[in-house]
From TrEMBL:
This is Tat pathway signal sequence domain protein. Residues 1-19 have a biased composition (Low complexity). PANTHER family: MEMBRANE PROTEIN, SLR8030 PROTEIN. InterPro entries: PhoX, TAT_signal. SUPFAM superfamilies: Thermostable phytase (3-phytase) (SSF50956). Pfam families: PhoX (PF05787). The lineage of its organism: Bacteria, Bacillati, Actinomycetota, Actinomycetes, Kitasatosporales. Residues 1-21 are annotated as: Disordered.
């Protein structure tokens, strides 16, 4: 049987500097919006470089941007690197829309390679231009673009990295320096005009996309992918599924035939498995931080290609399988993989409601622990709900892209549990009567930690934010 331990995490006591249950953490300036979460944040940084950096209480209140694009704390500044509709510097066509997941990779001579997803469906007006040798399905409007930045942050090139895919939402880097871009769809050939099946992971070489081409990694499964994280010691790839309807998505692991084999090695195939937490059919039913489940099981997926039945609907035998709503961000830290459930709503079929969870899985112990629970906010119509893309910050904390209602923020979370607003989107894509702001996505840092890159999903814009990060 699985061991279930509820209550706060060990060492999380009042006055220790770490949050306990339902601790109200911060107010974001004049908005008067509180964010609440429970758990011990130190778990999120175990074994990472950021764990050795001091926490801080933020950089001060946000200063309204006179240009109406991006509000930042005093001392910080931004540059717009790329906007949808502008010409790609390669001359291949316009910059595509719907900027989403992104990652920064080191290049030679102080250069930085940025790989950026475009979450375009077949109806998108600004799709990724098709390029010979880099296109999977000419009917697909999604894909990735790649920017190369010089030592001073200047854009040296911007080009198509992969085209003809669909709904490229998130992904993750590999230990050998490539990007795994994920299709958040399971549309088959003949649907929405597609000529090929979709719902796959593709590998993208940020320095030279033609070396990676447009080859689906079919053994990694065909489902509504969100993000991936790779165990740098064993080469196991963990994958989240953001399914829109009940039954909700699963948490997967892929056991490659050639673990840590370098660029292109994932094409050799492997085994896809789904996580089963005995006695827990829906992760949303777990509400207490510190809840721990030992003896997590991994069950082979009967049909990874989902030829007739979506994977989450397949028969996993006695005991079934464990589902969760809105499984999104995923990253590796120390000896564990962390993954985010952005929210759960019983009205939509979940076992219980929550405003965001972060789970930790320890492969060596086969142990799953609920380490952070977000919300509820003081007013769920305002910021502070639905964490989405997440990354470790060089200041010793997290940066979290908000995907909720109202004005949209990038929130920082320190190792001491303080929450602060790092950026606020001023893009109004609605009307003065009914304002609407595009969400943030793809937050990532340059290899030297001096620049934060982040996307505005709509209108698609990529920002580079510099300033006193180590203040």
């Amino acid at each position: 049987m699985s061991e279930i331990t509820t209550g706060t995490s060990t060492g999380s006591t009042p006055g220790s500097g770490f949050p306990t249950r339902r601790r109200m953490l911060a107010r974001t300036g004049a908005l008067g919006v509180s964010i609440a979460f429970a758990g011990n944040l130190s778990e999120l940084f175990a074994g990472t470089a950021a764990a050795h950096a001091p926490g801080h209480g933020g950089y001060g209140p946000l200063v309204p941007d006179p240009d109406g694009l991006l509000d930042l704390p005093e001392g910080f500044r931004y540059r717009v690197l790329s906007r949808e509709g502008d010409p790609l510097r390669s001359g291949e066509g316009p910059v595509p829309s719907h900027h989403d997941g992104m990652c920064a990779f080191p290049g030679r001579g102080g250069r930085v390679h940025l790989v950026r997803n475009h979450e375009n469906r077949a109806t998108a007006s600004l799709g990724v231009p098709t390029v010979e040798g880099l296109t999977y399905d000419p009917a697909g409007k999604g894909g990735c673009t790649a920017l190369t930045l010089g030592p001073r942050g200047e854009v040296l090139s911007e080009r198509v990295a992969i085209a003809g895919t669909a709904v490229n939402c998130a992904g993750g880097p590999t230990p050998w320096g490539t990007w795994l871009t994920c299709e958040e769809t399971e549309d088959k050939a003949g649907t929405a005009g597609y000529a090929k099946d979709h719902g796959f992971v593709f590998e993208v070489d940020p320095a030279d996309p033609r070396r990676s081409g447009a080859v689906p990694l079919t053994a990694m499964g065909r489902f509504q992918h969100e993000a991936v994280a790779v165990d740098p010691r064993r080469g196991v790839v963990y994958e989240t599924e953001d399914a829109f309807q009940k039954p909700f998505g699963l948490f997967y692991r892929f056991l490659p035939e050639k673990p840590l084999g370098g660029p292109g090695s994932l094409r050799a195939g492997g085994r896809l498995q789904a996580m089963r937490v005995p006695g827990v059919p829906d992760l949303s039913s777990i509400q207490e931080t510190g809840a721990r489940f030992d003896g997590v099981e991994w069950v082979d997926v009967p049909d990874p290609q989902a030829r007739r039945t979506p994977i989450r609907l397949q028969d996993f035998g006695p005991g079934g399988i464990t589902h969760a709503q809105k499984l999104e961000g995923c990253y590796w830290g120390g000896r564990s993989v962390y993954f985010v459930s952005s929210f759960a709503r019983s009205a939509e079929g979940s076992a219980a409601d929550h405003h965001g969870q972060i789970w930790r899985y320890e492969p060596e112990r086969r142990r799953l622990t609920l380490v952070i629970v977000f919300g509820p906010d003081t007013d769920v119509r305002l910021p502070g709900e639905s964490p989405d893309n997440i990354c470790l910050a060089p200041s010793g904390g997290l940066m979290v892209c908000e995907d909720g209602n109202g004005a949209q923020h990038v929130f920082g979370v320190t190792r001491r549990g303080e929450v602060y607003a790092m950026a606020r989107n001023r893009h109004n894509i609605g009307t003065p009567e009914e304002p609407e702001w595009g969400e943030f996505a793809g937050v990532t840092f340059s290899p030297d930690g001096r620049t934060m890159y982040v996307n505005c999903y709509s209108p698609g814009t990529t920002f580079a934010v510099t300033g006193p990060w180590h203040r």
